[in-house]
Write a structure and sequence with these properties.
The chain is an alpha/beta fold. The chain folds into 2 domains: 79 residues, no CATH class; 221 residues, Rossmann fold. Helix content is 33%, strand content 17%. The chain has a 9-stranded mixed beta sheet with strand order 1-13-12-7-6-4-5-3-2, with helices on both faces. Strands 8-11 form a two-stranded antiparallel sheet. Helix 5 links the parallel strand 6 and strand 7. The two termini are 23 Å apart.
């Protein structure tokens, strides 16, 4: 059986403010026995027997015993959908054995007249459904790794919406491949507004999800949009200033100079000057380290979607001014923060502070580096497991809905 993830519940439930590692030694016999009894009843009710029953019962017993015994929190209800959570281990069915949810591509018009291209995954059954809105990180597009998350959220009963910001991939807007924090945040709000207005979406159960650079937006929106039911920030950049200070001074000055030159050129009507988004150490680009290079194969679209591993140089200007970590205490909805143990791209300390300062903050310390959380990464299975468990606890998707039958 694979080792279960290091996982923290809310700040109040983790006395040492550190992640707890779950293994059998931490679970009291009473907690395991009580959990086993609950899980046995639930799985028998689903008609599971034999090897299938034992494998799922063992996995789910560990999870329930962790929440009820090791942490000492209130009982955590397991829904039928939770029986499919760790879908990519050898004790559960692989997602490859479950039908891929139907995806619809649509265009959402913005106030500027440009259109945002979005992929909408609608779960089976009658609504209204809970919904989750996803966007990618710095210089990345939805076709570069968001589909596995959106598909599994849909299987669990959520209407999932993955979109590209204006100026990127299938969305319209000029110039191409420019990162603008205010504009991207506005796009998030536009898609959220669209979701809230849909008749098959329950407006009391809408979630914002962000990864890497889009974690900057997810945390900011979670702190300022009272409509949200929950939020997930995965390996997030939550302090632009801390992110900028990770760049060596010499390269930082060069990036600033090229960005300023590009900004002046824009005022004079010149086309953008592009720089690589991710490069190897020693090369010139926005992010220059080994993890940036390793991540290229993960975030490169496999379906032919437009993507060039580049960004308009002017995009580097102004990032340091955006510091949603300072608003963590204002986040009133539950928020799960995933922080990679070996992340060299997004500063870890500010992300940890968000999990600690948010009144309903929860923390998962994932294995590996920045891209270990995506499909193909070292801890993708556990990250997906924890995120879905978090959603079922706080959003309560209808049991049995979705495509995972």
């Amino acid at each position: 059986m694979p080792t279960l993830p290091t996982y923290c519940r809310s700040a109040a439930e983790r006395p040492d403010r550190a992640a707890l590692k779950l293994d059998d030694r931490q679970l009291s016999h009473a907690a395991r026995d009580a959990a086993a009894a609950r899980v046995a009843g639930l799985l028998r009710a689903k008609g599971l027997t034999g090897d299938s029953w034992h494998s799922r019962a063992n996995e789910q017993t560990r999870q329930v015993a962790y929440h009820e015994g090791a942490v000492g929190s209130a009982p955590t209800a397991i829904t039928p959908a939770a029986a499919h959570l760790n879908t990519r281990t050898n004790t559960m069915r692989s997602t490859n054995e479950i039908a891929t949810p139907t995806r619809t591509t649509l265009r959402i018009r913005t106030a500027s007249g440009d259109e945002i291209e979005a992929w909408v995954y609608r779960p089976e059954g009658e609504g209204p459904h809970p919904a989750i809105v996803l966007a990618h990180g710095f210089a990345a597009v939805k076709a570069g790794g968001l589909a596995p998350f959106a598909e599994q959220f849909c299987r669990e009963g959520f209407l999932a919406i993955a979109f590209d910001y204006r100026q990127w991939s299938g969305s319209t807007g000029e110039p191409r491949d420019e990162v603008s924090v205010p504009r991207q945040r506005e796009d998030y709000r536009t898609v959220l507004d669209w979701a809230f207005a849909q008749p098959d979406v329950d407006p009391t159960r809408v979630v914002v999800w962000g990864t890497s650079f889009s974690g900057l937006h997810a945390v900011e929106i979670a702190a300022t949009d009272a409509r949200l039911c929950a939020a997930i920030a995965q390996c997030p950049l939550v302090d632009g200033l801390a992110g900028v200070t990770m760049v060596p001074p010499g390269r930082s000055l060069r990036l600033f100079g090229v960005g300023l030159w590009d900004r002046v050129g824009a005022l004079l009507g010149r086309p953008p000057r592009y720089i690589p988004a991710g490069v190897a150490p020693g090369e010139f680009g926005f992010i220059a380290n080994a993890q940036a290079v390793e991540g290229l194969d993960i975030i490169r679209p496999k379906d032919g979607s437009e993507w060039h591993n580049r960004v308009a140089a002017r995009s580097v200007l102004g990032i340091a001014a955006h510091r949603p970590v300072r608003k963590a205490a204002d986040i009133r909805c539950p928020i799960l923060v995933v922080v990679a143990e070996e992340d060299t791209i997004a500063p870890k300390a500010p992300a940890l502070r968000v999990a600690e300062r948010a009144p309903k903050g929860e923390l998962y310390r994932s294995r590996g580096g920045h891209y270990g959380t995506y499909e193909g990464g070292v801890d993708y299975d556990n990250v997906l497991h924890v995120e879905i468990e978090f959603l079922h606890r706080h959003v309560q998707a209808p049991a049995g809905s979705g495509a995972s039958v």
